[in-house]
TrEMBL record:
Coiled coil: none
Protein name, as recorded: 2,4-diaminopentanoate dehydrogenase C-terminal domain-containing protein
Organism: Nocardioides marmoribigeumensis
Family annotation (Pfam families): DAP_DH_C
CDD domains in the record: nat-AmDH_N_like
Domain 2,4-diaminopentanoate dehydrogenase C-terminal: from-to ranges: 144-349
Length: 357
């Protein structure tokens, strides 16, 4: 059965989701939402930098709901106002439309991260409409839920599970993320929003908590946050803006879950705006970035997962893998019980139908 899909955005992740939907034999793209008058009424193919496909985008939500799609693939930016996304999801779910989304990232595993009443609101809306919601991607997402949990199936004893993103963000075009959230290019004494008390736990606590849930651990509360910044020794240029000497150029942070005071699950990010910065911090196995899973215990296991686009850039491929984790999960999410669905609830998701012909 072909599933009718609406894509929610044509941005850095959305355009790759659209390409993935169009290429998928089980999916039909029937509508696309855009955020501005400038894009409204334009051909979707042209908005994504390609040839016209005969489908025009709209910024009118009601038009897309009226199409009665099976599912919305939502890739719009939610970092600036994550709770507005919850309101939209409740409306779509209540209308009987399944949703797969790249954010807000705390919905990867919201239990213990956001108030219970917010989680229940999504659950109730899904049950009213008979629809499911799944939020995932690559990080938070596959690189730190499915991947590490599958690896633990090889363990005889587990002492700690640690998931890393080690990346150079110089070619990652997200000015809001780089400049505002991370504070790259900003004064060292200016605290970016992401590193205000408790925000890291909201953003990446879901990673620690879903791994803990998969391992049947009860974590100490609250989770522990650790942050270290690096100062630029020279001027740098990135696609998201300038990073002058003397400003913040890199960050290393951790969100740690302990059991009886002992670290058992950790999420660690090492984010640079040039590969030369802080050579003493963890380095990618190859190229400019990787995801790493370290499991200490018996046996000791380390897996480095790297990716890059056909042009060699890892930030472009980061957008592709985020989009395709969602697109390829559509069928499983549509088949799932109503309400919030996490990676622990889904069957094996594969790239079925995507082998080149």
């Amino acid at each position: 059965m072909t599933l009718r899909v609406v894509e929610w955005s044509t941005g850095t992740v959305g355009k790759h989701a659209i390409a993935g939907i169009l290429a998928h034999p089980d999916l039909e793209l029937v509508g696309v939402w855009v955020s501005s008058e400038e894009k409204h009424g334009k051909d979707v193919g042209e908005l994504c930098g390609g040839e016209p496909i005969g489908l025009t985008a709209t910024m009118h939500k009601d038009e897309l709901v009226a199409l009665r799609p099976d599912v919305v693939v939502h890739t719009a930016m939610t970092d600036a106002d994550p709770f507005a996304a919850l309101t939209l999801f409740e409306e779509l779910l209540a209308a009987g439309i399944d949703v797969v989304s790249s954010g807000p990232v705390f919905l990867q595993w919201p239990h213990g991260v956001i108030p219970d009443e917010m989680v229940q609101g999504l659950q109730d809306a899904g049950e009213r409409g008979g629809a499911s919601l799944h939020v995932n991607g690559i990080d938070p997402g596959f690189a730190n839920d499915v991947l590490p949990l599958v690896m633990t199936s090889l363990s005889q004893r587990i002492d700690q599970v640690r998931c890393y993103e080690i990346a150079d963000y110089s070619t990652y075009y997200q000015p809001f993320v780089n400049q505002t959230l991370y504070g790259f290019g900003k004064p060292m004494d200016e605290v970016p929003p992401l590193f205000s008390g408790g925000i890291l736990t909201m953003a990446w606590g879901s990673v620690v908590r879903i791994i803990a849930a998969g391992l049947d651990l009860t974590l100490d509360e609250p989770l522990e946050e650790q942050v270290e910044f690096a100062e630029a020794e020279r001027d740098y240029s990135t696609v998201s803006g300038e990073v002058p000497a003397g400003t913040r150029c890199a960050v290393r942070f951790q969100v740690v879950g302990k059991v009886d005071g002992v670290p058992r699950v950790a999420l660690e990010h090492v984010t640079r705006t040039h590969p030369e910065q802080r050579p003493d911090w963890p380095q990618p196995a190859t190229g400019d970035g990787c995801y790493r899973v370290e499991i200490t215990g018996e046996p000791m296991m380390t897996l480095d997962f790297s990716h890059h686009g056909e042009d060699g850039d890892h930030n472009v491929s980061g957008m592709i893998v985020t989009a395709m984790r969602l697109v390829n999960a559509v069928g499983a999410v549509v088949d799932a019980p109503p309400g919030l669905v996490t990676a622990l609830d889904l069957p094996l998701v594969t790239g079925r139908g995507l082998v080149s012909r």
